[in-house]
Amino acid sequence: MEIELAARQLEALGNLTRLKVYRTLVRAGHDGLPVGALQQRVDVPASTLSHHLHRLIHTGLVVQERRATTLICRAAYPAMTDLVGFLGEGGHGGGSAGSAS
């Protein structure tokens, strides 16, 4: 995983509403949730949810699928796995934080 992508994903998850949306979708499992059900669970206006979903989709953390007239949102589990794996990698990332001299 590229460090720039990881940074964008972590920045997206650094917003309280987006983190709530993402956790709700992760907990919903692979079936995901219709946008309306997601909106009810996170209790935000539709326009606010749309804005935050766009950011999560843009960073690859969430995917949407249209089923007839319903828009289904789901967590992109491979992206989540990659991000968690990146965070757990030792000795990578090019930074010097935590290195001993």
Automatic annotation (TrEMBL):
Domain HTH arsR-type: start-end pairs: 1-95
A Pfam family that the UniProt record links to this protein: HTH_20
Provenance organism: Methylobacterium radiotolerans
PANTHER family (alphabetical): ARSENICAL RESISTANCE OPERON REPRESSOR ARSR-RELATED (PTHR43132)
Record InterPro entries: ArsR-like_HTH, HTH_ArsR_DNA-bd_dom, Metal_resp_trans_reg, WH-like_DNA-bd_sf, WH_DNA-bd_sf
Entries under SMART domains matching the protein: HTH_ARSR
Keyword Transcription regulation: yes
Keywords for this protein: DNA-binding, Transcription, Transcription regulation
The protein's name: DNA-binding transcriptional ArsR family regulator
Superkingdom, taxonomy of origin: Bacteria
GO molecular function annotations of the record: DNA binding
